[in-house]
Amino acid sequence: MAILDNDQFTDVIDDVRLDSPGPSTTQPESFGDAEHNQYNREIITSPDSLIVTSWNCAGSYSDVTAFLEVRRGKSDVIFVQEIPYKHIRNVQSTTNASGDAAWYPPKAAGWEYLDQYADGPKCADKKLLPTVMCYVASSLLASNPKLMTHVVNHRDAALISLTIGKRPYYLLGVYQKPGRAEYERAIRYLTTRHNLPKLDALVGDFNLHQENLQSS
């Protein structure tokens, strides 16, 4: 299983390429002009060329849209932490005369986002919406990407499956807020999920140092 923690590097965006004997080089790249948008790419050779990217966007709606544009054709799957939402409109409600607020994540051509509200508007309380969003390149829609909420149903974690060349991939993205209590919230939940499939990649912003991740 490939493990990728944003905090293992000095910056906040990282890539992992699956099914490889190991990493080659880590090379710096940049996105935009903001200092927090400097990042490293962990390049791992693989015949399957499935590139999974992890990024904490710090809640910037416009940055996510721009990043998706930049990464089109460069990433296959992107897990974004601290994903922002916008109140686009209100939708009809049986309990609220003014309607329920509908919240939507950023979108961009060439990408499809996966979450439990994908088939309808985001009518839940904004504070309860997922902090992790998974985007899959439109070119991979034939691989039947699915959010596996029947296995992992938590706002700080997203488990997806997709099939490429008859080979199933299971990818898990996680966001851990700083602080012991916040850390334990998602981790304790995941440790109770005894039906987790064998993961091909565990990525995210764990707010842990590299040595802590490796010893866990």
Automatic annotation (TrEMBL):
It comes from the Eukaryota. This is Uncharacterized protein.
